[in-house]
Amino acid sequence: MKKKQFFRVIEPYLYLLPAMFFFSAFLFWPFLKTIWLSFAMTTPLGAVSSFVGLGNYLSIFTSQAFQNSLFVSFKYAVMTVTCSIVMGFILAIISNEDIKGKNLFRTFYALPMAISAAAASVVFMFIFHSSLGIINKVLGTHIGWLTDPKYALNAVTIVTVWMNIGLNFIFLTAALQSVPLDLYECAAIEGAGFFAKHKHITIPCISPTLFFLLIINVINALQAYAQVKLMTQGGPSGSTNVIVYQIYQEAFMNSRFGMACAESIVLFIILMVLTLIQFRLEKKVTY
Amino acid sequence: MKRRKKWLAAIMAAVMSMTLAACGGSATSGGTTAAGSSDAATTKAAADTQAPAEGGKTVITLWHAMGGVNGEATEALVKAFNESQNEIEVKSEYQGKYDDLITKLKAAMQSGSMPDVCQMYDIGTKFMTDSGHAIPVQDMFATTNFDPSTVMNIITSYYTVNGKQMSMPFNVSTPMLYYNKDVFKAAGLDPNTPPKTFDEVLEFSKKIVESKAAPVGYAQAIYGWFFEQQIAGQGKYYANNENGRKAPATEVDFLNNGAGLKIFETWKKLMDSGYADNYGSTTADTQTAFFSGQAAMIIESTAILKTATESSDFEIGTGYLPKIDASATDGGVIIGGASLWMMDNKDEAKKNAAWKFIEFTTTPDSQATWSMSTGYFAVNPKAYETPAMKDFIAQNPNFTTAINQLKDTPVNGYTAGVLSGVATESRTIFNEAMEKTYDGTYTPEQAVSFLAEKVNAAIVNYNSSTK
Fold first, then answer.
1. Prediction ipTM score
2. Which residues form a coiled coil (chain B) (predicted)?
3. Residue A65 shares a structural domain with residue A26
4. Which residues of B touch A234 (CB under 8 A)?
5. Chain centre to alpha carbon of residue B137
6. Cβ atoms within 10 Å of B165's Cβ, excluding its own
7. Which of these CATH numbers, 3.40.50.620, 3.40.630.30, 3.10.50.30, 3.40.190.10, describes B52-173+336-385?
8. Domain segments of chain B as ranges
9. For residue B283, which of B274, B271, B295 has the smallest C-alpha distance?
10. For a surface tag, which of A5, A155, A179, B259 has the fewest beta carbons within 10 Å of its beta carbon?
11. What is the pLDDT along chain A (287 residues), one digit of tens a residue?
12. Are residues A63 and A173 in the same domain?
């Protein structure tokens, strides 16, 4: 009898064990090691050469490059998240109307999702090329989309928005379909127009989805890397040097793993705080 | 319906049991390996020499960073070596670009899974030397009576640290001027006289743009390598302690000797003239502008000669790297490209095999084939005496530019290039300094001091972390 009781207590933990093993090996251990390394100075091979206490943290906060990368990342996050959610929403609404070839449009809109960031970046590099690119040809301009600090971040944003729309579109389309139709019928009877209908019914009804998308889009934006690595390498003049690229450069180009770890920890804290704030807000803004 | 569900369940169960079986299988084999490696070191050494043997051959791995046309040439070279004898088999693995390769090698050094031969770009020389994982090639010369003068002195000088040749130059390139002969003709310029100085570059660009022969006269990628080249071209040091070769460099020299400022001023003036254009820090974008006929002149590595000839439908001309300071006499170009390093895997058989492969790459025939199929410079001067190479050069006179440019370069501390542990970082900082000069944020003076200050900080950090 006692034996059975004991088994009952430990049974759930046994089920957790395999997952915990993989989590520990691939998440917890690297995380702890990152914290540990963030207090150290490393040799070019990544071995600890001496401990510097909070030295790395002090130097990243006085480093202009790091401050710049935080600023760039936030600017980038605000631009990509707003644009891709708004555009995903507009496309979802349009393709939710009763029109011919609805499913075809839906497939088209979701398609960019299937393209990897690397492939998209390479294609857009041709599109943005200052003398051969189609954008300058069409506009009749001579803008260095990827070489002029005024435009480079916008160009990277455009690519990211294009890539993210697909995912946002799918989630929002699904959400739109779960909005009860009778609400719209009621509204129609009361004489609500297109905009009033969406403002007062659609948006409140899909607010949990919007909120979910907001969180994952922000996290994605702050973790952006491939586009920057391929299209601009953080340049020109650091104008596209987002935080993850800055970390990559610090670790793998400059071989200062300690500094890179300290920067990762800062990114982690920022993401955690943002997520906490968003969850607090969720209770207020969604139904 | 119900029936179908049953079938589905049965199939899923079968799949699951198969996966389980697979897991069980790997667990057992994992166990055996663990047991094996826990044995005495002697067993391990024996296992190492036995394990790679495939039909009595010593198998060694080569990591390289050669893609595209150059990658095919590398594979061909490896194949030629494997077919030339029957004791050693080289397996070559492409690891991405130079920067990716060094990152992977760092990881491999830590996990103890290094290749036996590794290609490494010029600026990785200091890192490789300091890592302690490399066997200096000079230590192997005696084993096969290799004559060190096989390879040109100007080339080995770059890879010589503290008087010892660390690695074997493999793909050697220098920057040179590429120009569009058709555009030169259309602009009324002599298609056989490329500009020799940057003053001439400006003058020619003006003529090209004003005669509407091409929209852009001159373009050059933002690339720290070109900056290093122009310092050597002026006969000046990049860093103190004779470019870090007499003793580890402790600070940059280009700030005090004025070479840096001259470069920034010249390039800024050229860009501001409106006859030149900037396509950013990705060299491929500048190449594309040239291949498509947009830009009439570019600076590029001699290594893209083959690609350039294949990618453009106009006649290409080549010239020496234009000079910033026409009066500098003891300057020249620094050799770039990469060399082959022997990694210390504590295995005598592999070590000897690795050296034999490296030695093979330096033979006149290997170098001639390699050079003809890539555009890289042949490190063994005898390669130019082979009949195949002679014919080739007669048909492709552009290849002679690279050869003559290197022959005209004096062997000295300036042209040996800087030996720096922070070369990659310095180039990134250079990009920022140059970009900010082009967009007007910095004056050339501010840009040079910014660059010097940042590079100095990196050098100090490197020196204290490797102490």
1. 0.70
2. none
3. no
4. 428
5. 18
6. 20
7. 3.40.190.10
8. 52-173+336-385, 175-332+408-465
9. B295
10. A5
11. 577 888 888 888 899 999 999 999 999 999 999 999 999 988 877 788 888 888 899 988 888 889 999 999 999 999 999 999 999 999 998 888 877 888 888 888 888 888 888 999 999 988 998 777 888 889 888 888 888 888 999 999 999 999 999 999 999 999 988 888 888 888 888 887 888 888 888 888 888 888 889 888 998 899 899 999 988 888 788 889 999 999 998 888 888 889 999 999 999 999 899 888 888 887 776 66
12. yes
